[in-house]
Queue: 4 jobs
Job 1
Amino acid sequence: MSEASRRPGAGLDTSVPNIARMNDYFLGGKDNFAADRKAAEEVLAVAPEVRAMTHEAQAFLGRVVRYLVGQGMTQFVVIGSGLPNRRNVHQVAQEIVPGTRVVYVSRDPVVLSHARATLATNPYTTAVEGDVLHPRELLADPELLRLVNLDLPVAVLILSALQFIPDEDDPHKSVAILRDAVPVGSHFGIGHVVFDTRQEVKAPLVEIFQRVLGRTEDASRRSEQVLRFFDGLELVDPGLVYVRHWRPDNPLAAQGRDKTWTMGGVARKVEG
């Protein structure tokens, strides 16, 4: 990406850190500004493993997409997508099945702008404005419906958004609405940072992200709370696990003590 293409757009306040651009910084990208880097470094000062967690989550995404395409999924809705990178969902899926349809969903104008520019020449992929907390509006979006046939199984990926949404917003209900709206045979892939361990870093990290997001609620969860997002679905092996243990490409590399704490799983809808 050229330096010119990374200049802030009109109306973009680069003095305010942004979750997507912080994530880009953790991944070693260049689509970030000084405020994003400052907030990201505050996170790393508390928990240096967050950079590794971001890379593990990216690898988990690739494995999930390959698995789902292998299960016959040719329609993907990616909710809370981040900035485009080298291995996006559509790239992984369309390498296997070229006609796979992918809809990226975000409220972030930075993400939407980048995504639309990146996807402009891909007829099977698009980006729409929306979020997991407004599932009915999302599934009625004309641009989404242009690519996705909701009478056929769809893969819904929510791999990073839920960990920033507090219980006060009732994200479990929103995921349940999505679950009920898609047909039998659909799959859900969910990822979430958990605080089963590393309790000593929870409070300072929560404070940083509250400041970044302009919220006062605590959105942190333990694994049993994340498991509730799969209610009414059938988890596929190996269930909800630390992401490095989810169908690893190299099982030996996934062994050892977990020093990172992002969990994820995939489940299928088996009943209407």
Job 2
Amino acid sequence: MALLILGLVIFLGIHSIRIFANDWRTAQIARMGPNKWKMLFSVTALIGIVVIIWGYGIARAQPVWLWTPPRWAPHLAGLLTALAFILFPASHVRNGRIKAVVGHPMVLGVGLWALAHLLANGTLSAVVLFGAFLLWSVIDFAVSLRREPAAGLASANGKLMGDIIPSVVGLVLWALFAFVLHGWLIGVRPFS
């Protein structure tokens, strides 16, 4: 469990700098330049995600069960993760209505992904992993809305294609991940 927590501290820590120390972040980018900052950020995030995966794999080998998820939980998790997979590409489409209305679709997508996995898993390691991501996404979403009050309150002025493309891409990636890659990479087949 210690490795999982260390990985979460590294990964969510680097992703929390803008939340808790935005002025320091801005000063560091000005001091070292945006490319060096992005490289340092990316390397740190990659180390964090590798340690999370490693730590979660070790913790899953000896699960501590807190509850047994209900039979309907994987189906609700599938729906929530499908929405999350749509929100991820929608965050990169400038003229989409989804981004205009939600404001921060990537952060909301992470929150839905984490909530889905909390519902479908009842182990202590799952609560630590997905609970940390859910807490981070709630805090980041709230701070982002406070920093940019207009975000998420805009009318749906975007173009329909700005919503169709990320929806199709997101659902195709979700299906590929849910039915093929999740079992291969994580060892759990959500719908079998």
Job 3
Amino acid sequence: MADIPNSEPIKHLNREEKLKWLMTAYGNDVIRIAYTYLKHKQMAEDVAQEVFIKCYEKMDAFRNESSYKTWLIRITVNQSKDVLKSWTFKNLYFTDIFKPKPTLSSLQHSFSSVEENQLISKQVIELPVKLREVIILFYYQEFSIEEISDMLKLNSNTVRTRLHRGRQKLKEGYEGAWAISGK
């Protein structure tokens, strides 16, 4: 990125030029950081778009107390957390996310494995939101208990309790469903 001017000349750019400069200099960083929170490329790109819209709207209010990069990253983190807390994110249909991680043993499974995965996905979706969100964040998004605790602003013991209750409900539902189907 040799074309990118240092931060001194940016002061003399108009709003549109400044926005273009910031997008060129930090656009990939913004998308990468959003992706680390959301684990979904399209959502990360949507967040990046929102970040640069906010940046443009608030550009005149920037007080140079931090670097532009720090300012953009802070906006990105806050926007990503807002998405994680949103009704839309928590209530999406997660069937595509529930694809099993490929392993040698999963490659050897037959049609019944596909049925099992569909059953588990359906049961996760039917969990109460409080249990569903920690199950999804822990198992499918692979966040740690501490990260989930920070994201959801919950005590880590509360996250552990919800994970335990979610697992119990899934186990009960799974055993019940297989008993009914005769497998």
Job 4
Amino acid sequence: MPISVDITRQLLSFNNGDIHREWPVSTGLKGTGQESGSYQTPLGQHYIRACIGYGLAPRAVLQGRRTTGEVWTQDLHAQQPGRDWVLGRILWLCGCEPGFNRFGSVDTQRRYIYIHGTPDCEPLGVPLSHGCIRMNCDDVVELFPLAGYGTKVNIHL
């Protein structure tokens, strides 16, 4: 599997045989789970359905998978406490396992589960997200060209 997300270690690994890299991540504060509305990170086999953010600044703000025209700063962050920031790049995930992480109320894609950038002030290595897999902005920019459409992703404990 080119991308492996280890929930226990809060670590994303990329390995295509030629390149091996690892980065700290932050997954769901509420743990792991498949159900829509659970705010949990889904487990199992996935693939990247869409790559969003080509050419954007590493800290460009995205909302609804579109750029807002903003670039994240500490000041902007302070003005909007509690905002769930999606920055720089989005790797939108789709489940591969019908009834487990695909279709119905357990559909990863319909839950809008992404690998995406997070503000510099947000800690990594601890579960704090709303279900997505958060990465440092510079790290997700580094991962982005390595992991295109169709790249396999395994999310596991």
